[in-house]
Amino acid sequence: MGPVQHRALSRKRLAVMGGALMFLAGCNALPNSGPTESQINHAQQNPKKNAVGYGIVQISLDLITLLDSEGPPSFSSLDADNVPVAPGKNDTVGPGDILQVSIYEVGSSLFSANSATMLASSASGTNTLPSSASSSTLPPVVVDGSGNILVPFAGQIHVTGMTAHQVADAILARLKQKSQSPQVLVRIASDIANSVMVYGGVRMPSRIPLTPNREHILDVIALAGGVDHTTQADEDYMIRLVRNGHIAEMPLKVIENEPAQNIAMQPGDRVQVIYHPRTFSVFGASGKITQTRFSMPTLTMAEAVARVGGPVESRADPNGIYVFRYENADVLRRLGLPVDEKASVAPVVYQLDMMNPSNYFLAQKFMMRDKDLIYIANASSNRFYKFFGLITTVISTAE
């Protein structure tokens, strides 16, 4: 290389280094996938940047215990809170039921054609008695809104809370003075009082009558045709139970896997089957930025991070693993965060330091929720490495 070429190459290298120094002064302009831990913490304290008013809470065992205690009620707890002192047998009569009443008589009959024969015989003075018993089935008897039925020759009878056998006895007591050796049979033809409504994502939404066998929640879902397994998995279905003004929701798969949650139905229960695929999103220095479905009844933070490949070693800051969530406002008040009095939910950021080995156990206990957002912070040194790589590329090109 001649002197002239050597000087030209030196000037080029100096120009490149000078330009690199200028880039170093504006290193913040280098592209990045998101803020660092310190930037998130500073933004939280800056009212101009924290317009939604979120707080940052460190994930701890106490926090996990609080979140678990404030979760939606399980079906087993709902059953314990509302179970009657003496559990019903689903065989009593109530308003709206339709009864089939059959009356059997000997001799003078009130309800069959034999009664006309008896009247004619009495008028002629022969007093001829029929030689055989007669039976009559009354038209459908509806229990009115007050719980009463009206039976010819027996009058109005209050039957709410009675079994079919007790209703028959009540009718018989009224007819004994008017008919010779009457016998009464009562059957519940349409059972409205002892039924539950099953609707939503089932093949045959309907009213399911309960029997003395005491059907459970999976039983009535099956009787309504079950959920559509051809396109969706059980993990994507939520079951909502409404009982006495209380509401509980659980994934269908949890009910299938935990017999204690497959509680017995009570008259008046409403069961809604909801197709609701749950997802979480991941941003920042992760192996993959994506929105991912749960595809399982419950999902921990550790499992969620692992699904996307975990933090990228070359650019992630394991001190700053965050979960962004809209949390129940009562929970945030108990954590001491300022929350509007009228708010039912408020934003919060949960942080986990994965440089502490014990926190990996917490990650296995912290439960993810639908629409949670995981953010893995970039390391502060990430920009330096990007800048260093840029300089290396420029110098190599210049040579």
Automatic annotation (TrEMBL):
Subcellular location per UniProt equals:
Cell outer membrane
A single GO BP: monoatomic ion transport
Q: Which InterPro entries match?
A: Poly_export, Poly_export_N, SLBB_dom
- Keywords, alphabetical: Cell outer membrane, Ion transport, Lipoprotein, Membrane, Palmitate, Polysaccharide transport, Porin, Signal, Sugar transport, Transmembrane, Transmembrane beta strand, Transport
Q: Does the keyword Signal apply?
A: yes
- Spell out the Gene3D superfamilies in the cross-references: Outer membrane lipoprotein wza domain like, wza like domain
Q: Lyase as a keyword?
A: no
Cross-referenced Pfam families: Poly_export, SLBB_2
Q: Which residues form the SLBB domain?
A: 290-376
Q: Which GO terms describe its cellular component?
A: cell outer membrane; pore complex
Query: What membrane topology is annotated for this entry?
Result: Multi-pass membrane protein
| Signal peptide interval | 1-29
Q: Name one GO molecular function term.
A: polysaccharide transmembrane transporter activity
Q: Where is the Polysaccharide export protein N-terminal domain?
A: 88-188
**Similarity comment: family membership:** Belongs to the BexD/CtrA/VexA family.
* Cited PANTHER family: POLYSACCHARIDE EXPORT PROTEIN GFCE-RELATED (PTHR33619)
Q: What is this protein called?
A: Polysaccharide export protein
